[in-house]
Amino acid sequence: MGFFWTILVLVVALGVTWRFLGSYMAAVFDGRVHFLGFIERPVYRVLGTSPENEQSWQRYAGSLVIFSAVSIAFTYLILRIQGSLPLNPQHLNAVGPALSFNTAASFATNTNWQNYGGETTMSYFSQIGSLTVQQFVTPAVGIAVAIALARGFSRRNSPTIGNFWVDITRCMLYVLVPIAFVAGIVFVAQGGLQTLAGPVVVHDSLNGSTQTIFRGPIAFMESIKQLGTNGGGFLDANSATTYENPTGLTNWLSIYLLLAIPFALTYTFGKMVGSIRHGAALLAAMVIIFGAWVGFTSYAEHGQNPAVAAAGVHSTVGNTEGKEVRFGDTSTALFGVASTNTSTGSADASYDSFTPIGGLGLLTGMMLGEVTPGGTGSGLYTILIYAIIAVFIGGLMIGRTPEYLGKKIQASEVKLAGLGALVMPIAVLVLTAIAVSIHAGRVAPLNAGPHGFTEVLYALTSQGNNNGSAFGGLTGNSAFYNTVGAIDMLIGRFGIMIPALALGGALAAKNVVPASLGTFRTDNGMFVGLTIGVIIIIGGLTFFPAVSLGPIVEQLSHGKFF
After folding, report:
1. What's the Cα-to-Cα distance from 94 to each of 78, 86, 112, 242, rounded to whole Å?
2. How far apart are CA 370 and CA 492, in angstroms?
3. DSSP state of 351
4. What are the CA-CA distances from residue 212 to residues 88, 90, 233, 394 (Å)?
5. 164-208 pLDDT tens trace
6. Residue 222 Cα distances to 24, 108, 116, 324, angstroms
7. How many C-beta neighbours within 10 Å does residue 386 have?
8. What is the pTM of this model?
9. Residues with Cβ < 8 Å from 170, sequence gap 6 or more?
10. CB 477 within 8 A of CB 359
11. CB 501 within 8 A of CB 147
């Protein structure tokens, strides 16, 4: 399928999904979907809760933190004792404490950053019983926070924003599990590997060499990896391998799955607040930035790598270094932008081999806060934070108290939105400065100069945005990067989630102010443009000096910018 048709079919499929999956999720979280009630009700009895037992934002946030802490502890324990557990045909030993902590924090924050080779480090039990479990529950947590914030806009004078345990249960039962199951069947049908058999050793009688081929329950992990914007693969080479991503159809399906829920949640938001136009405005902001990033990244990868051209090698088929020939340069760029503009981080190529400008597209997609469209849930609640800032600026322009969906945006809401928008850049830039200032951080990059700096900046940006993709030249499995990376991921997750829930609680407690002739509209093109401007300006002001030292100076050192 050519690049044009890939884009066209993707746009049509996502348009249909936006309308129908978005409406379906609104019904799910409103409690109007019950076909798995025979499973749902016993879960509530075990948890000692019910849909009627709603929580304040403080209790909702407390439940989220407790659940996440237990998830981290559970994953850490499994990895530390995996050598004594069943389903270990590779006979792998326990994972070390620093790597176990990093991996536990990674999968419990929906980052799925991997400082290890999955096939040579994790047993089948660890992959199935721990990591894949986290790939279901962590996107459910992100979606739950987005729904709770949406309730803040839709409710009036309410002390509650829903029930955390009910929201994540409904999300997994009615959204994630059914879609992932169907997608998993497609991956298997296309040739994705799904087996509990151990590795196979193949002997080549022609040259006398042997090769170990790793196998495992891969295909069904692949479906939730993409759908939940997780990105953590069973194999070290991720979606570049035929076992995880066997055909062009599965490559397209991967892109579709990782974009489906983040885009559809804007319709869910519009449905919940009673104004589809407001959901469409958020969608428009996402699509415009996403389209622009796909455009210039694909253009950069369809040209020559300046370093290769400087060596006297001229290509007529684009930058194919580090890419699968079966996918091509432009489709690979689309996959990369989709993966890094969401919190997925999966890869069907070596991102370290992208051109400087192509790598800039991947890096800056994360630096904008991953709101175009962002991860499952995280994209919606983060762009709503930016929308509140945009409303505040718009209110200043017309000299009125800012209002969004009839809710007055006052000092407390602006402070919470500012905290949510700035916590990630502060964490990433401070930790990057530390990493390039001490020996333990400087010895990890494979390359010197601007590209080596980009490898460090990319890693900490990826972890701070709960993305998980990497420039593979960085050696991340060290005590320093395992510890710093885990801290980065935890700040990037909960430093935004908790302010988002506090915003939801503050807004739910407010009454609705009737619109007047002086009200700044938040469902039209002007607001879309203002929101885009806020996203670009905040990202640019915080990160431009850093990217100037990395991919920009690397590109300019080889001549022209494009």
Report:
1. 9, 13, 19, 28
2. 11
3. G
4. 16, 11, 19, 61
5. 999 999 999 999 999 999 999 999 999 999 999 999 999 888 888
6. 24, 17, 17, 18
7. 25
8. 0.96
9. 28, 29, 31, 33, 40
10. no
11. no
